[in-house]
Amino acid sequence: MTSLEKAKKVVEILSKRKAYDVVLIEVGNLTSITDYFVICSGNSETQIKSLADEVDEKMKELDISPSHVEGYRSASWILLDYDDVIVHVFHKESRMFYSLEHLWGDAKRIDISDIITEE
Fold first, then answer.
1. Contacts of 42 by beta carbon, 8 Å cutoff, 6+ apart
2. Contact, 44 vs 100, CB < 8 A?
3. Is residue 114 part of a domain?
4. What is the C-alpha separation between 10 and 55, in angstroms, rounded?
5. In this structure, is residue 119 part of a structural domain?
6. What are phi and psi of 30, to 5 degrees?
7. CB-count exposure of residue 36 (10 Å: 0-12, 13-18, 19+)
8. Domain with 79 in it
9. Strands 108-109 and 68-70, how do they pair?
10. Contact between residue 13 and residue 54 where contact means Cβ atoms under 8 Å apart
11. What total of structural domains would you count in the chain?
């Protein structure tokens, strides 16, 4: 599975789980830490943990485990590091405060409109 395929799979998982404002940005040409960021929001600690749990579970079914997880206890920003794809699950207020999309403003946004489910 390529990095982009992995990132799009995460987007699909988050979308099905009703994550808000899901974005996929390519940062590999700007940093050596990863190729893609998947960023999304949840409305509560429970939803944020549920989103992170679902990504973890579904990726493990594909034999893909995170090398590192941070923020699970506080659940205002959970980071799942899959090496070439880093998943950021934010509480809405934390996402606005840290503003990763603005910080990585030079990064290319990947069109995910064909993946996002609108129900």
1. 19, 20, 48, 50, 51, 89, 90, 91, 92
2. no
3. no
4. 6
5. no
6. -110, -20
7. buried
8. 3-109
9. unpaired
10. yes
11. 1
Cα–Cα dist 97/9, whole Å? 27
For residue 118, what pLDDT is reported?
A: 59
Q: Read off the pTM.
A: 0.94
- In a domain? residue 75: yes
Tell me the pLDDT of the chain averaged across its residues. Answer: 93
What pLDDT does residue 4 have? 95
User: Tell me, what amino acid is at 98?
Assistant: Y
Q: What burial class does residue 113 get, using C-beta atoms within 10 Å of its C-beta: 0-12 exposed, 13-18 middle, 19+ buried? A: exposed
What pLDDT score was predicted for residue 75? 83
Ranges of the chain whose pLDDT falls below 50? none
**In a domain? residue 18:** yes
